[in-house]
Write a structure and sequence with these properties.
CATH architecture of the largest domain: 3-Layer(bab) Sandwich
Largest sheet: 3 strands, antiparallel
Radius of gyration: 16 Å
CATH class of the largest domain: Alpha Beta
CATH topology of the largest domain: minor pseudopilin epsh fold
Shape: globular
Number of domains: 2
Number of strands: 3
């Protein structure tokens, strides 16, 4: 069975950037539902015990269309939120350092340029979706966005996400209402760049 990600911080720990009610609703309601429903479809598909990344990368092998769709939506919701929650911290903010900074500067010019590019992808995502920074099989960093609960793995890019920015309305609407851009600007205040660097190193090893 796939277990729901346990937050390493309290629901109110990201205040005032992300309010406690949003975090509690997001994690205990939305993510809990994705996890439970993913497990239901995983059992139907016979993929329980496989890593979620493997399930999402092999959706085309699932013959039953309804099961395939259920895995894509709920497995994506499970994976995407695991990553999103894991790269935030009450001690986050600032800028990347070390190897991650070197790789991001090489890929995007500098940190400000990265923020501009990822913000454009996040604000430009029509409707619900995500913005991503991922590692290619060659170890390079790339940016992308996707709708609904899709991600670079389920889309078959071969890239490994290490940074996830949730732009579903439930991620920000209680506090920021329709001001997605304000939420995105504030989000960078809680990003744990040390965790993102750990994910980068794991992706290239």
């Amino acid at each position: 069975m796939f277990e729901q990600y346990k937050l390493p911080y309290a629901y109110d720990a990201l205040e005032p950037t992300i309010d406690a009610l949003t975090m509690e609703t997001h994690h205990s309601k939305h993510h809990a539902t994705y996890t439970a429903t993913f497990n239901t479809f995983a059992e139907k598909a016979g993929v329980v015990g496989q890593p979620v990344e493997e399930v999402l990368a092999n959706l085309d092998k699932i013959q039953d269309e309804a099961v395939r769709k259920g895995l894509r939506n709920n497995g994506g919701g499970y994976y995407n939120h695991n990553l999103y929650f894991s790269i935030m911290s009450p001690d986050g903010g600032g800028e990347p350092t070390g190897l991650l900074k070197e790789k991001m500067d090489a890929a995007f010019g500098n940190f400000d340029s990265f923020k501009e590019q990822i913000t454009a992808l996040a604000t430009g995502q029509f409707g619900s979706g995500w913005a991503w920074m991922s590692v290619t099989p060659a170890g390079e960093l790339v940016l992308s966005n996707s709708g609904n609960q899709d991600n670079p793995i389920s889309l078959g890019t071969g890239n490994k996400p290490i940074f996830a920015l949730d732009v579903w309305e439930h991620a920000y609407y209680l506090k920021f209402k329709n001001l997605r851009g304000e939420y995105i600007k504030e989000f960078f205040k809680v990003v744990d760049w040390k965790k993102v660097e750990e994910l980068y190193k794991a992706a290239v090893n």
